[in-house]
Specification:
The structure is a single chain. It contains nine helices and seven strands; from the N terminus they run βββααααααββααββα. The termini are far apart. A hairpin with a 2-residue loop joins strand 2 and strand 3. It has 260 residues and is mainly alpha-helical. It has one domain. The strands form three sheets. It has a three-stranded mixed sheet with strand order 1-4-5, with no helix packed on it. A two-stranded antiparallel sheet has the order 2-3. A two-stranded antiparallel sheet has the order 6-7.
Length: 260
């Protein structure tokens, strides 16, 4: 059984340091370190990559928050000051990917840097960073699933239980499911696909996108707090789009590399 010890890791007078922030910082630091090593291994200028990655992280954080706020506008319209309270959670990975691609990718394109190779380099970092960052949801008691009695169930305190489940105590730890899936995607990218797709720039990123989207589609179906567009779970809709992009993009890139 899992039970969160609470969102605050350390209190220094009026300052509270939250686990969510610590884990996000760790995820970004590990991702940048891994990307730097991978750039060196591939013979790509690591300084240019890091500059692009730093901008992508800024764009990713902004995009992740705006995406979440946009689909939760009924709440944030009433409490606009909460829009900047990212330490309380509320970052959507799909918005983060879009924001990161727009800012980091735009910078690489304007500087005529090898964007496709950059995407391949950071793909494992994204998967590993997500595996780490998902544990922030555990400490915040958020992003959990429907009630369950499985041995690995998650205890949720009464104030955090969604309406309709107030009498339930134990829920699916969907943060754990997604973290394990992302760790598996990271292992597959590094151990199976990285060497095989070296001659097809961009293909490794599409593999990441497709594999992540498959897992996210399944996990999202268990959650009780999905962002909704009418009666449709937004993350499932975007995940289907991600799978479609991967299924189209990977064969095209492989075919192009064979012709070159």
């Amino acid at each position: 059984m899992f039970r969160s010890p609470g969102p605050v890791a350390l209190e220094l007078g009026p300052l509270s340091i939250r686990w969510y922030g610590i884990l996000m910082a760790c995820a970004m630091a590990v991702g940048l370190w891994l990307a730097y090593r991978e750039a060196c291994r591939r013979g790509v200028n690591p300084d240019d990559l890091l500059k692009t990655s730093e901008l992508a992280l800024v764009g990713g954080l902004i995009g992740a928050r705006l995406y979440y706020v946009a689909f939760s506008w009924e709440y944030y319209r009433q409490f606009p000051l909460k829009i900047v309270a990212v330490w309380e959670g509320g970052l959507a990975i799909h918005g983060g990917l879009l924001g990161g691609l727009l800012l980091g990718g735009g910078y690489a394109w304007l500087r005529q840097l090898p964007l496709a190779r950059y995407l391949d380099i950071v793909a494992p970092s994204l998967a590993l960073g997500q595996a780490i960052g998902r544990w922030g949801n555990f400490f915040n008691e958020e992003a959990f699933g429907r009630p369950t009695d499985l041995p690995w169930k998650l205890y949720v305190t009464p104030p955090q239980r969604p309406l309709g489940y107030l009498r339930e105590e134990f829920f699916h730890p969907t943060f754990l499911y997604e973290s394990l899936w992302d760790a598996g995607v990271f292992a597959l990218l590094i151990l199976v696909f990285r060497r095989r797709l070296t001659r097809s720039p961009g293909a490794l990123f599409f593999v990441y996108l497709g594999l992540y989207s498959v897992g996210r589609f399944w996990v999202e179906g268990l959650r009780t707090d999905s962002l909704m567009l009418g009666s449709v779970r937004v993350a499932q809709l975007v995940s289907l789009l991600g799978v479609a992009v991967a299924l189209v993009g990977i064969p095209l890139l492989l075919r192009r590399s064979r012709r070159s």
